[in-house]
Structure formats: C-alpha cells, structure tokens
Backbone:
C-alpha cells in the first residue's frame, strides 16, 4: 500500500503512530506510553472502513524501524503487537 502516510506524534509521556490512507479520512493508530528508553505499545486501532489493508502491520513496522534506528525497546502490551513479535523472532532483541 504505497498511498499510506505514517507519522509519529510524541508527547512527554505518550505518543502514537498514525496511518493516513490517501483515499480516506479515517486514521489508523498505534499508541504507546513512554517509560525512559522503553515504549509500551498499548493499543493498535484501525477503523473498519480502512481495515483489511495491512495498515496495522505497517504501523508495527514503523514502530520496529524507529526502535532499530533510535535504540529504544518495546513492551508489546497490545495483543496485535504481541502477536507480531511472536511472528518475528528476529525482533526479540527489541523486546523490553
């Protein structure tokens, strides 16, 4: 899905990744809490009108890419993120 823009929005103690499909006003989100150099991924939410496009997976991919480049680790509290970690054992070094 090349027509998907993913942005990251950080606040002091929390933040989220947002997925913006070009053909919809709906936004997918992966939210997190910050705890030092650890992000607790707590929710992945994709509205039904943009579901079935792999958006949740792309949000997790963005989280993983940032963890690799910035050196933070992840607590996959969200069931979707936890399942993604189980499918990708190569991410085990990023688990807090």
Residues:
């Amino acid at each position: 899905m090349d027509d998907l823009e993913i942005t990251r929005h950080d606040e002091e103690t929390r933040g989220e990744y947002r997925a913006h499909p070009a053909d919809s006003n709906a936004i997918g989100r992966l939210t997190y809490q910050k705890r030092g150099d650890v992000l607790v991924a707590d929710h992945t939410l994709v509205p039904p009108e943009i579901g079935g496009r792999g958006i949740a997976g792309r949000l997790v991919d963005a989280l993983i890419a940032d963890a690799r480049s910035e050196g933070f680790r992840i607590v996959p509290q969200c069931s979707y993120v936890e399942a993604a970690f189980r499918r990708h054992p190569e991410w085990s070094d990023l688990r807090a």
Summary: The first helix runs from residue 55 to 70. Helices lie at 55-70, 79-87. The chain has a mean pLDDT of 96. The two ends are 30 Å apart (CA to CA).
